[in-house]
Fold this sequence. Notes:
It contains 1 helix and 5 strands, in the order E-E-E-E-E-H. By secondary structure, the protein is mainly beta. It has a 5-stranded antiparallel sheet. A hairpin with a 5-residue loop joins strand 3 and strand 4. The radius of gyration is 13 Å and the shape is globular. It starts with 7 loop residues before the first strand and ends in a 5-residue tail after the last helix. Pfam families: DUF1918.
Amino acid sequence: MKAAIGDRLVVEGTYHDEHRRVGVITELRHPDGSPPYVVHWLDTGHETLVFPGPDAHLMTKEDRESTLPSW
């Protein structure tokens, strides 16, 4: 997993009652974009250092723009 500042980190809930969490990557700890990342969580406003697990994936700016309708 290689990220850039501004990418979204999406962590899927692994249990039935857990919800998906989405955060914005605000800081990289390695110049090649590998984990860990400092993430600002959109649901709580907190920032944490995250080592993403197998339930996480990135959404880049290009990914977000490609899902918008082209009116």
